[in-house]
Amino acid sequence: MKKRKKIPVWKPKKLLVQKKLKIETKQRSVNKKQYDYKWREVSKTFRKNNPFCCDCLKSGEYNSKNLHVDHIIPLVEKPELKYEVSNLQSLCRKHHSMKTFKETLAKKKPT
Ligand SMILES: [Zn+2]
């Protein structure tokens, strides 16, 4: 009787990485749950009250597409102002990325 060849268990690396990621997201979601639900509510209400991009409005444009709720003082500087409505503004995707870009530049070159 011939011995059966053992079939090697094939473990693709990808799977292992996914497993690791899953664990990491699990740990992260603990914080996320507490913060993000509130943030979703705050930003939803804010967008309802401020349905146009703040910067577009300055040039007389009523832009309500791809609105982001932006923190005027970035969260990295004042994380405690995350839900502070007076620190929020609606920005379209273009203006939001412009602001983020400026902030990144300012961080690199402190004045
Ligand atoms: Zn805009």
Provide an overview of this structure:
The protein is mainly α and 111 residues long. It has one domain. It has helices at 13-49, 54-58, 93-108, and strands at 67-71, 88-92. The chain has a two-stranded antiparallel sheet. The mean pLDDT is 84. The chain binds zinc ion. Zinc ion binds at residues 53, 55-56, 63, 91-92, 94-95.
What descriptors fit this protein?
single chain; 111 residues; mainly alpha; two-stranded antiparallel sheet; 3 helices; elongated; binds zinc ion
Could you give a quick summary of the protein structure above?
This protein is mainly α and 111 residues long.
Provide the fold topology.
Blueprint: H1 13-49, H2 54-58, E1 67-71, E2 88-92, H3 93-108
Antiparallel strand pairs: 1-2
The protein binds zinc ion.
* Attached small molecules: zinc ion
The structural domain count equals 1
Structural class: mainly alpha
Terminal residue distance: 82 Å
Mean pLDDT: 84
Number of helices: 3
Strands across the major sheet, in which order?
Answer: 1-2
User: What global shape is seen?
Assistant: elongated
Order of helical and strand elements? HHEEH
What is the percentage of strand-forming residues? 5-15%
Number of distinct beta strands: 2
What is the alpha-carbon Rg in Å?
A: 23 Å
- Uncertain residue ranges: none
Outline the biggest β-sheet. 2 strands, antiparallel
